[in-house]
Amino acid sequence: MSVETLPDELLDFPFSWRGDQLPDEIEVLRKEPVKRVRTIAGDKAWLVSSHALCRQVLEDRRFSLKDTSAPGVPRQYALTIPPEVVNNMGNITGAGLRKAVLKALNPKAPGLVEWMRSNAAELIDGLMAEGAPADLRGQFADPYSAGMHCHILGIPKADAPRLMRSLDIAFMNSACPVSGAKLNWDRDIAYMVERLDDPATTGLMAELAALREDPEYAHLTDEMLATVGVTMFGAGVISTAGFLTMALVSLMQHPELTAELLADRGRIPAAVDELLRINLSIGDGLPRLALEDVTLGEVEVKKGELVLVLVEGANFDPDAFTDPHKVDLARENNTAHLSFGGGQHYCPATALGKKHAEIALETLLEKMPDFRLAVPVEQLVWRTGFMKRIPERLPVMW
Fold first, then answer.
1. Can you give the pLDDT at residue 90?
2. pLDDT tier for residue 386 given thresholds of 50, 70 and 90
3. Distance separating alpha carbons of residues 94 and 215, to the nearest angstrom
4. Distance (Å, rounded) from C-alpha 143 to C-alpha 130?
5. CA nearest neighbour of 88 among 283, 230, 290
6. What is the mean pLDDT of the chain?
7. Long-range contacts of 137-142 (CB under 8 A, 24+ apart)
8. Distances from the Cα of 62 to the Cαs of 51, 65, 145, 288, 291, in angstroms?
9. Are the beta carbons of 362 and 268 closer than 8 angstroms?
10. Taking Cα atoms as reference points, which of 71, 27, 14, 57 lies closest to residue 301?
Protein backbone atom coordinates (compact mmCIF):
# COMPACT_ATOMS: atom_id res chain seq x y z
CA MET A 1 0.00 0.00 0.00
CA SER A 2 1.28 3.46 -0.88
CA VAL A 3 0.40 6.09 1.69
CA GLU A 4 0.63 9.77 0.72
CA THR A 5 -1.62 11.29 3.36
CA LEU A 6 -3.16 9.89 6.49
CA PRO A 7 -6.93 10.13 6.93
CA ASP A 8 -8.50 12.33 9.59
CA GLU A 9 -10.37 9.39 11.13
CA LEU A 10 -8.69 7.10 13.62
CA LEU A 11 -5.90 4.95 12.23
CA ASP A 12 -5.82 1.30 13.18
CA PHE A 13 -2.55 0.44 14.90
CA PRO A 14 -0.25 -1.46 14.41
CA PHE A 15 0.18 -0.74 10.71
CA SER A 16 1.91 -3.90 9.45
CA TRP A 17 3.22 -7.20 10.80
CA ARG A 18 6.02 -7.50 8.26
CA GLY A 19 9.43 -7.20 9.83
CA ASP A 20 11.44 -6.76 6.64
CA GLN A 21 10.17 -3.32 5.64
CA LEU A 22 9.24 -0.10 7.41
CA PRO A 23 5.48 0.60 7.21
CA ASP A 24 4.68 3.39 4.75
CA GLU A 25 2.64 5.25 7.38
CA ILE A 26 5.73 6.06 9.44
CA GLU A 27 7.18 8.46 6.91
CA VAL A 28 3.87 10.29 6.65
CA LEU A 29 3.72 10.58 10.45
CA ARG A 30 6.77 12.87 10.30
CA LYS A 31 4.26 15.68 9.70
CA GLU A 32 2.15 14.63 12.69
CA PRO A 33 4.41 12.96 15.29
CA VAL A 34 1.60 12.67 17.86
CA LYS A 35 -1.32 10.98 16.13
CA ARG A 36 -4.61 9.57 17.39
CA VAL A 37 -4.99 5.83 16.69
CA ARG A 38 -7.27 2.93 17.53
CA THR A 39 -5.64 -0.05 19.23
CA ILE A 40 -6.27 -3.76 18.82
CA ALA A 41 -8.43 -3.58 21.95
CA GLY A 42 -10.59 -0.93 20.24
CA ASP A 43 -9.42 1.88 22.53
CA LYS A 44 -8.09 5.29 21.56
CA ALA A 45 -4.43 6.15 22.07
CA TRP A 46 -1.83 8.73 21.10
CA LEU A 47 0.88 7.30 18.86
CA VAL A 48 4.21 9.12 19.28
CA SER A 49 6.70 8.64 16.45
CA SER A 50 9.51 11.24 16.58
CA HIS A 51 12.74 10.46 18.42
CA ALA A 52 12.60 13.56 20.62
CA LEU A 53 8.99 13.06 21.70
CA CYS A 54 9.44 9.31 22.20
CA ARG A 55 12.34 10.04 24.55
CA GLN A 56 10.25 12.63 26.36
CA VAL A 57 7.52 10.07 27.05
CA LEU A 58 9.96 7.38 28.19
CA GLU A 59 11.84 9.73 30.53
CA ASP A 60 8.86 11.64 31.98
CA ARG A 61 7.51 9.93 35.11
CA ARG A 62 4.12 11.46 34.43
CA PHE A 63 3.78 8.71 31.81
CA SER A 64 3.42 5.43 33.71
CA LEU A 65 3.95 1.84 32.61
CA LYS A 66 2.57 0.33 35.80
CA ASP A 67 -0.78 2.09 35.44
CA THR A 68 -1.39 0.70 31.94
CA SER A 69 -2.51 -2.49 33.73
CA ALA A 70 -5.05 -0.73 35.97
CA PRO A 71 -8.70 -1.76 35.57
CA GLY A 72 -10.78 0.34 33.21
CA VAL A 73 -7.94 2.18 31.48
CA PRO A 74 -7.56 2.18 27.66
CA ARG A 75 -5.42 -0.72 26.50
CA GLN A 76 -3.26 -1.57 23.53
CA TYR A 77 -4.41 -5.19 23.79
CA ALA A 78 -5.76 -7.55 26.42
CA LEU A 79 -3.42 -8.50 29.25
CA THR A 80 -1.95 -12.01 29.03
CA ILE A 81 0.01 -11.79 32.29
CA PRO A 82 -1.22 -10.83 35.78
CA PRO A 83 -1.65 -7.03 36.01
CA GLU A 84 0.82 -6.73 38.87
CA VAL A 85 3.59 -8.21 36.70
CA VAL A 86 3.42 -5.46 34.05
CA ASN A 87 5.81 -3.31 36.10
CA ASN A 88 8.13 -6.26 36.59
CA MET A 89 11.44 -4.46 37.15
CA GLY A 90 9.76 -2.03 39.51
CA ASN A 91 8.38 -4.97 41.48
CA ILE A 92 11.81 -6.59 41.60
CA THR A 93 13.33 -3.36 42.90
CA GLY A 94 10.57 -2.93 45.46
CA ALA A 95 11.12 -6.45 46.74
CA GLY A 96 14.84 -5.83 47.23
CA LEU A 97 15.89 -8.24 44.49
CA ARG A 98 17.33 -5.75 41.98
CA LYS A 99 20.97 -6.38 42.95
CA ALA A 100 20.65 -10.15 42.52
CA VAL A 101 18.90 -9.80 39.16
CA LEU A 102 21.38 -7.27 37.76
CA LYS A 103 24.27 -9.48 38.88
CA ALA A 104 22.76 -12.41 36.97
CA LEU A 105 22.26 -10.27 33.85
CA ASN A 106 25.87 -9.05 33.80
CA PRO A 107 27.68 -10.42 30.72
CA LYS A 108 30.89 -10.34 32.79
CA ALA A 109 29.52 -13.00 35.13
CA PRO A 110 32.13 -15.79 35.48
CA GLY A 111 32.02 -18.22 32.59
CA LEU A 112 28.99 -16.68 30.84
CA VAL A 113 30.75 -15.45 27.71
CA GLU A 114 32.60 -18.76 27.37
CA TRP A 115 29.31 -20.61 27.70
CA MET A 116 27.69 -18.46 25.01
CA ARG A 117 30.58 -19.04 22.60
CA SER A 118 30.49 -22.79 23.17
CA ASN A 119 26.72 -23.03 22.84
CA ALA A 120 26.60 -20.88 19.69
CA ALA A 121 29.31 -22.99 18.06
CA GLU A 122 27.59 -26.22 19.02
CA LEU A 123 24.28 -25.10 17.53
CA ILE A 124 25.84 -23.89 14.26
CA ASP A 125 27.88 -27.08 13.93
CA GLY A 126 24.74 -29.13 14.49
CA LEU A 127 22.60 -27.46 11.86
CA MET A 128 25.45 -27.50 9.33
CA ALA A 129 25.90 -31.23 9.93
CA GLU A 130 22.23 -31.75 9.07
CA GLY A 131 22.71 -29.89 5.80
CA ALA A 132 20.94 -27.07 3.98
CA PRO A 133 18.39 -25.68 4.11
CA ALA A 134 18.44 -25.00 7.82
CA ASP A 135 16.16 -22.87 9.98
CA LEU A 136 18.29 -20.18 11.61
CA ARG A 137 15.44 -19.23 13.88
CA GLY A 138 14.27 -22.63 15.11
CA GLN A 139 17.72 -24.22 15.12
CA PHE A 140 19.84 -21.29 16.27
CA ALA A 141 18.28 -18.00 17.48
CA ASP A 142 15.58 -19.57 19.65
CA PRO A 143 17.59 -22.36 21.31
CA TYR A 144 20.65 -20.10 21.72
CA SER A 145 18.57 -17.49 23.56
CA ALA A 146 16.59 -20.01 25.59
CA GLY A 147 19.75 -21.89 26.56
CA MET A 148 21.43 -18.71 27.77
CA HIS A 149 18.51 -17.82 30.00
CA CYS A 150 18.37 -21.34 31.41
CA HIS A 151 22.09 -21.02 32.19
CA ILE A 152 21.59 -17.66 33.93
CA LEU A 153 18.60 -18.91 35.92
CA GLY A 154 20.40 -22.14 36.79
CA ILE A 155 17.70 -24.48 35.46
CA PRO A 156 18.14 -27.45 33.08
CA LYS A 157 18.53 -26.47 29.44
CA ALA A 158 16.46 -29.54 28.60
CA ASP A 159 13.48 -27.78 30.21
CA ALA A 160 13.64 -24.83 27.79
CA PRO A 161 11.10 -26.26 25.29
CA ARG A 162 8.40 -26.61 27.96
CA LEU A 163 8.89 -22.97 28.98
CA MET A 164 9.05 -21.83 25.35
CA ARG A 165 5.56 -23.28 24.76
CA SER A 166 4.08 -20.47 26.84
CA LEU A 167 5.58 -17.61 24.89
CA ASP A 168 3.19 -17.60 21.93
CA ILE A 169 0.29 -16.85 24.26
CA ALA A 170 2.21 -14.78 26.81
CA PHE A 171 3.20 -12.34 24.07
CA MET A 172 0.02 -12.54 22.01
CA ASN A 173 -1.90 -9.49 20.82
CA SER A 174 -5.61 -9.97 21.33
CA ALA A 175 -8.61 -7.70 21.78
CA CYS A 176 -10.03 -10.05 24.42
CA PRO A 177 -8.47 -12.00 27.31
CA VAL A 178 -6.94 -15.34 26.30
CA SER A 179 -8.07 -18.27 28.46
CA GLY A 180 -4.86 -20.21 27.95
CA ALA A 181 -2.72 -17.39 29.33
CA LYS A 182 -3.52 -18.09 32.98
CA LEU A 183 -3.04 -21.84 32.50
CA ASN A 184 0.42 -21.22 31.08
CA TRP A 185 1.28 -18.72 33.80
CA ASP A 186 0.19 -21.05 36.65
CA ARG A 187 2.07 -23.98 35.14
CA ASP A 188 5.31 -22.00 34.70
CA ILE A 189 5.08 -20.50 38.20
CA ALA A 190 4.67 -24.02 39.62
CA TYR A 191 7.72 -25.14 37.65
CA MET A 192 9.87 -22.30 39.04
CA VAL A 193 8.67 -22.96 42.59
CA GLU A 194 9.86 -26.55 42.17
CA ARG A 195 13.27 -25.22 41.09
CA LEU A 196 13.49 -23.23 44.33
CA ASP A 197 13.29 -26.54 46.25
CA ASP A 198 15.53 -28.51 43.88
CA PRO A 199 19.09 -28.93 45.24
CA ALA A 200 20.35 -29.24 41.64
CA THR A 201 19.26 -25.66 40.88
CA THR A 202 22.10 -23.17 40.46
CA GLY A 203 22.37 -19.60 39.16
CA LEU A 204 19.86 -16.89 39.99
CA MET A 205 17.11 -19.28 41.10
CA ALA A 206 19.48 -20.80 43.67
CA GLU A 207 20.34 -17.31 44.94
CA LEU A 208 16.66 -16.49 45.26
CA ALA A 209 16.00 -19.78 47.05
CA ALA A 210 18.72 -18.96 49.58
CA LEU A 211 17.02 -15.67 50.44
CA ARG A 212 14.16 -17.64 52.00
CA GLU A 213 16.47 -18.32 54.95
CA ASP A 214 17.17 -14.60 55.45
CA PRO A 215 14.78 -12.86 57.89
CA GLU A 216 15.22 -9.65 55.89
CA TYR A 217 13.36 -11.30 52.99
CA ALA A 218 10.63 -12.95 55.06
CA HIS A 219 8.03 -10.89 53.19
CA LEU A 220 8.77 -12.72 49.93
CA THR A 221 6.63 -15.71 49.01
CA ASP A 222 7.76 -18.58 46.81
CA GLU A 223 5.38 -17.32 44.12
CA MET A 224 7.03 -13.88 44.16
CA LEU A 225 10.46 -15.45 43.74
CA ALA A 226 9.19 -17.79 41.02
CA THR A 227 7.72 -14.80 39.17
CA VAL A 228 11.24 -13.41 38.75
CA GLY A 229 12.28 -16.61 36.98
CA VAL A 230 9.20 -16.84 34.77
CA THR A 231 9.31 -13.21 33.66
CA MET A 232 13.08 -13.18 33.12
CA PHE A 233 12.88 -16.28 30.92
CA GLY A 234 9.86 -15.09 28.94
CA ALA A 235 10.79 -11.45 28.35
CA GLY A 236 14.47 -12.27 27.94
CA VAL A 237 14.08 -15.07 25.42
CA ILE A 238 11.44 -13.36 23.28
CA SER A 239 13.47 -10.13 23.04
CA THR A 240 16.94 -11.60 22.44
CA ALA A 241 15.72 -14.29 20.04
CA GLY A 242 13.52 -11.79 18.23
CA PHE A 243 16.30 -9.28 17.76
CA LEU A 244 18.85 -11.91 16.73
CA THR A 245 16.48 -13.38 14.15
CA MET A 246 15.81 -9.96 12.67
CA ALA A 247 19.52 -9.07 12.75
CA LEU A 248 20.12 -12.11 10.56
CA VAL A 249 17.33 -11.02 8.20
CA SER A 250 18.92 -7.57 7.99
CA LEU A 251 22.35 -9.03 7.23
CA MET A 252 20.88 -11.03 4.38
CA GLN A 253 19.09 -7.91 3.12
CA HIS A 254 22.36 -5.95 3.28
CA PRO A 255 25.13 -8.17 1.85
CA GLU A 256 27.49 -5.19 1.83
CA LEU A 257 27.26 -5.13 5.65
CA THR A 258 28.05 -8.83 5.85
CA ALA A 259 31.09 -8.22 3.62
CA GLU A 260 32.28 -5.42 5.93
CA LEU A 261 32.00 -7.66 8.98
CA LEU A 262 33.77 -10.54 7.29
CA ALA A 263 36.62 -8.17 6.43
CA ASP A 264 36.80 -6.77 9.96
CA ARG A 265 35.22 -8.76 12.83
CA GLY A 266 36.18 -5.92 15.17
CA ARG A 267 33.25 -3.94 13.76
CA ILE A 268 30.67 -6.40 15.06
CA PRO A 269 29.88 -4.37 18.24
CA ALA A 270 29.14 -1.29 16.13
CA ALA A 271 27.08 -3.45 13.78
CA VAL A 272 24.98 -4.74 16.69
CA ASP A 273 23.89 -1.23 17.66
CA GLU A 274 23.14 -0.32 14.05
CA LEU A 275 21.18 -3.56 13.61
CA LEU A 276 19.31 -2.73 16.82
CA ARG A 277 18.44 0.67 15.38
CA ILE A 278 16.95 -0.75 12.17
CA ASN A 279 15.37 -3.72 13.96
CA LEU A 280 11.63 -3.95 13.27
CA SER A 281 10.74 -6.88 15.53
CA ILE A 282 8.94 -4.87 18.22
CA GLY A 283 5.84 -4.21 16.13
CA ASP A 284 3.73 -2.49 18.80
CA GLY A 285 4.15 0.74 20.74
CA LEU A 286 5.65 0.87 24.22
CA PRO A 287 2.58 1.75 26.33
CA ARG A 288 2.38 4.50 28.95
CA LEU A 289 -0.60 6.04 30.74
CA ALA A 290 -0.70 9.78 31.39
CA LEU A 291 -0.95 10.44 35.14
CA GLU A 292 -1.81 14.11 34.55
CA ASP A 293 -2.31 16.50 31.66
CA VAL A 294 0.95 16.78 29.68
CA THR A 295 1.85 18.84 26.62
CA LEU A 296 3.46 16.58 24.04
CA GLY A 297 4.62 18.49 20.98
CA GLU A 298 1.53 20.34 19.79
CA VAL A 299 -0.89 17.99 21.55
CA GLU A 300 -2.35 18.21 25.04
CA VAL A 301 -2.46 14.65 26.38
CA LYS A 302 -5.11 14.35 29.08
CA LYS A 303 -4.80 12.47 32.35
CA GLY A 304 -5.83 8.84 31.87
CA GLU A 305 -5.08 8.70 28.15
CA LEU A 306 -2.94 5.97 26.64
CA VAL A 307 0.29 6.92 24.86
CA LEU A 308 2.18 4.49 22.59
CA VAL A 309 5.87 5.04 21.85
CA LEU A 310 6.65 3.93 18.29
CA VAL A 311 10.25 2.74 18.56
CA GLU A 312 10.71 2.18 14.83
CA GLY A 313 9.48 5.72 14.20
CA ALA A 314 12.11 7.10 16.59
CA ASN A 315 14.89 4.90 15.25
CA PHE A 316 14.30 6.00 11.64
CA ASP A 317 13.77 9.68 12.47
CA PRO A 318 15.94 11.77 10.10
CA ASP A 319 16.09 14.53 12.71
CA ALA A 320 17.95 12.11 14.99
CA PHE A 321 19.82 9.91 12.49
CA THR A 322 21.32 11.22 9.26
CA ASP A 323 20.17 9.16 6.28
CA PRO A 324 18.30 6.77 8.64
CA HIS A 325 17.59 4.08 6.02
CA LYS A 326 21.32 3.58 5.40
CA VAL A 327 23.07 0.93 7.49
CA ASP A 328 26.16 2.83 8.60
CA LEU A 329 28.74 1.19 10.89
CA ALA A 330 30.49 4.54 11.29
CA ARG A 331 27.35 6.30 12.56
CA GLU A 332 28.51 8.46 15.46
CA ASN A 333 25.28 8.23 17.45
CA ASN A 334 24.38 4.61 16.74
CA THR A 335 23.75 3.98 20.46
CA ALA A 336 21.01 6.65 20.56
CA HIS A 337 18.37 4.19 19.34
CA LEU A 338 15.42 3.39 21.60
CA SER A 339 15.31 -0.36 21.01
CA PHE A 340 15.96 -0.97 24.71
CA GLY A 341 13.39 1.61 25.79
CA GLY A 342 14.44 4.51 27.97
CA GLY A 343 13.96 6.32 31.25
CA GLN A 344 13.26 4.34 34.42
CA HIS A 345 12.22 1.30 32.37
CA TYR A 346 15.40 1.14 30.28
CA CYS A 347 16.11 -2.55 29.79
CA PRO A 348 18.48 -3.78 32.54
CA ALA A 349 19.77 -6.52 30.23
CA THR A 350 21.10 -4.13 27.57
CA ALA A 351 24.76 -5.11 27.91
CA LEU A 352 23.86 -8.81 28.04
CA GLY A 353 21.63 -8.54 24.98
CA LYS A 354 24.38 -6.85 22.97
CA LYS A 355 27.01 -9.41 23.99
CA HIS A 356 24.57 -12.23 23.21
CA ALA A 357 24.15 -10.87 19.66
CA GLU A 358 27.86 -10.12 19.16
CA ILE A 359 28.86 -13.69 19.96
CA ALA A 360 26.10 -15.12 17.79
CA LEU A 361 27.08 -13.02 14.76
CA GLU A 362 30.79 -13.65 15.25
CA THR A 363 30.23 -17.42 15.45
CA LEU A 364 27.89 -17.47 12.47
CA LEU A 365 30.22 -15.42 10.24
CA GLU A 366 33.15 -17.61 11.21
CA LYS A 367 31.45 -20.93 10.54
CA MET A 368 28.90 -20.01 7.84
CA PRO A 369 30.23 -16.89 6.07
CA ASP A 370 28.12 -17.26 2.93
CA PHE A 371 24.74 -17.95 4.54
CA ARG A 372 21.79 -16.67 2.52
CA LEU A 373 18.02 -17.00 2.45
CA ALA A 374 16.74 -20.18 0.83
CA VAL A 375 13.52 -18.40 -0.22
CA PRO A 376 12.71 -14.82 -1.30
CA VAL A 377 12.19 -12.55 1.69
CA GLU A 378 8.64 -11.91 0.42
CA GLN A 379 7.82 -15.57 1.09
CA LEU A 380 8.69 -15.47 4.78
CA VAL A 381 5.68 -15.99 7.04
CA TRP A 382 5.57 -13.38 9.78
CA ARG A 383 4.41 -14.03 13.32
CA THR A 384 2.52 -11.43 15.31
CA GLY A 385 2.71 -10.26 18.88
CA PHE A 386 4.69 -7.91 21.08
CA MET A 387 8.43 -8.26 20.34
CA LYS A 388 7.51 -10.91 17.77
CA ARG A 389 7.33 -9.33 14.35
CA ILE A 390 9.64 -12.10 13.25
CA PRO A 391 9.38 -14.92 10.69
CA GLU A 392 8.00 -18.31 11.68
CA ARG A 393 11.07 -19.87 10.10
CA LEU A 394 14.27 -18.43 8.68
CA PRO A 395 15.38 -21.00 6.05
CA VAL A 396 18.95 -20.49 4.84
CA MET A 397 21.50 -22.09 2.58
CA TRP A 398 25.29 -21.79 2.54
1. 78
2. low
3. 16
4. 16
5. 230
6. 92
7. 137/241, 137/245, 137/390, 137/391, 137/392, 137/393, 137/394, 138/393, 138/394, 140/360, 140/364, 141/241, 141/244, 141/245, 141/248, 141/360, 141/394, 142/237, 142/241, 142/245
8. 18, 10, 34, 9, 5
9. yes
10. 57
Average pLDDT over residues 9-22: 88
CA-closest candidate to residue 241, choices 78, 394, 39, 16: 394
Contact status, residue 231 vs residue 152, Cβ threshold 8 Å = no
What is the CB-side half-sphere exposure of residue 213 using CA atoms within 13 A?
6
Cross-strand pairs, 309: 48, 286
Q: If pLDDT is split at 50, 70 and 90, which confidence band does 385 have?
A: low
Is the pLDDT reported for residue 376 higher than 60?
yes
The residue type of 187 is R
pLDDT in tens, 183-192: 999 999 999 9
Whole-angstrom Cα distance, residue 35 to residue 299? 9
| 3-class SS letters over the chain | CCCCCCCCCCEECCCCCCCCCCCHHHHHHHHCCEEEEECCCCCEEEEECCHHHHHHHHHCCCEECHHHHCCCCCCCCCCCCCHHHCCHHHHHHHCCCHHHHHHHCCCCCCCHHHHHHHHHHHHHHHHHHHCCCEECHHHHHHHHHHHHHHHHHCCCHHHHHHHHCCHHHHCCCCCCCCHHHHHHHHHHHHHHHHHHHCCCCCHHHHHHHHHHHCHHHCCCCHHHHHHHHHHHHHHHHHHHHHHHHHHHHHHHHCHHHHHHHHHCHHHHHHHHHHHHHHCCCCCCCEEEEECCCEEECCEEECCCCEEEECHHHHHCCCCCCCCCCCCCCCCCCHHHCCCCCCHHHCCCCHHHHHHHHHHHHHHHHHHCCCCEECCCHHHCCECCCCCCCCECCCEEEC
In this prediction, residue 89 carries a pLDDT of 73
What whole-number distance in Å separates Cα of residue 46 and Cα of residue 338? 18
Q: Taking a C-beta distance cutoff of 8 angstroms, is the pair 259, 163 a contact?
A: no
The whole-angstrom distance between residue 361's C-alpha and the CA centroid of its chain comes to 18
Amino acid identity of 216? E
Contact 169, 181 (CB under 8 A): yes
Gap between the Cα atoms of 320 and 268, Å rounded = 22
Dist CA 255 CA 366 (whole Å): 16
